[in-house]
Design brief:
Blueprint (H helix, E strand, L loop, with lengths): L1 H19 L3 H4 L5 H15 L13 H40 L16 H14 L3 H15 L11 H40 L5 H19 L1 H21 L8
Helix pairs in contact: 1-3, 1-4, 4-5, 4-7, 4-9, 6-9, 7-8, 7-9
Length: 253
């Protein structure tokens, strides 16, 4: 019995480990590895008594590895649903930086080929909204995942891959929608300066447009904060359901 309990605890630990490898709150490089391992082990100990196990223990090392890999994949897929929010914000930050004209050259950061000044702002802005209660929803959904995808169940959910693809498309869609106001203003600025360039050939519209793009772009971005918050909060409300639908090993429903 003790050996079976240890085995179940290992499977619970593998699932929460897979989740933490993707959730930015725990996967950030600033958090020490020891702290992440300790939190995963502590949370696995709390969840372990609530997990029901109704399958026969594997009698071979290969099957044991297969079960542990399955739990790790389930955790990774659930974490991917959370991480997509930050993929969306990163895409929006990149588009906004290019449209506003704040993307410096690679000489400012040769190791990464360039530095996105809005990327860090959008990341921590999303993290701030995420920590306004959504972290509890993520952990509760993890606990509920054992009712949707019990330990030992190896049936493949045929709809999970389709759901992941559709949600990935949604990441690009929402990322562009976040940057849409700035894109529209940048188009109008370029159109105005193109007309001025034709009307006043001696006017250096290329240099003058930079400052106007930055002023107009940052102003529109400041007024778009409420819109960005709405997109992020709507995504966070859908995240618990997405986590369960991303699970590739569960009874289809």
């Amino acid at each position: 019995m003790e050996l079976g309990a240890i085995f179940v605890f290992m499977l619970v630990l593998m699932r929460i480990t897979g989740l933490m490898l993707f959730v930015p709150l725990f996967a950030h490089s600033s958090i020490p590895v020891i702290a992440r391992v300790g939190f995963a082990s502590a949370f696995a100990l709390m969840v372990f008594p609530m997990v029901e196990f109704e399958y026969v223990l594997p009698n071979s090392l290969g099957l044991l590895i297969l079960w542990m890999a399955k739990e790790l994949i389930v955790g990774l897929c659930m974490g991917l649903a959370v991480r997509m929010l930050f993929f969306m914000l990163d895409l929006a930050a990149h588009v906004l930086t290019v449209e506003i004209g704040l993307m410096p050259g690679a000489e400012f950061n040769p190791s990464s080929g360039g530095f996105n000044p809005l990327g860090s702002i959008m990341y921590f802005f999303g993290m701030m909204l995420f920590l306004m209660g959504s972290e509890y929803d993520i952990l509760r959904t993890y606990i509920n995942s054992y009712q949707v995808a019990p330990i030992g169940y190896l049936g493949v959910n045929a709809y999970s891959a389709e759901t992941i693809v559709l949600r990935s498309v949604g990441v690009f869609k929402i990322g562009i929608l976040i940057a849409a106001p700035v894109i529209a203003v940048n188009f109008l600025v370029n159109l105005v300066f193109a007309v001025l360039g034709k009307a006043v050939p001696k006017l250096n519209v290329f240099i003058l447009s930079f400052s106007v793009r930055i002023i107009c772009g940052t102003t529109v971005l400041a007024f778009s904060i409420v819109l960005i918050v709405q997109y992020v909060m709507n995504y966070l409300h859908e995240t618990p359901e997405m986590m369960l639908r991303f699970i590739p090993f569960r009874p289809s429903f």
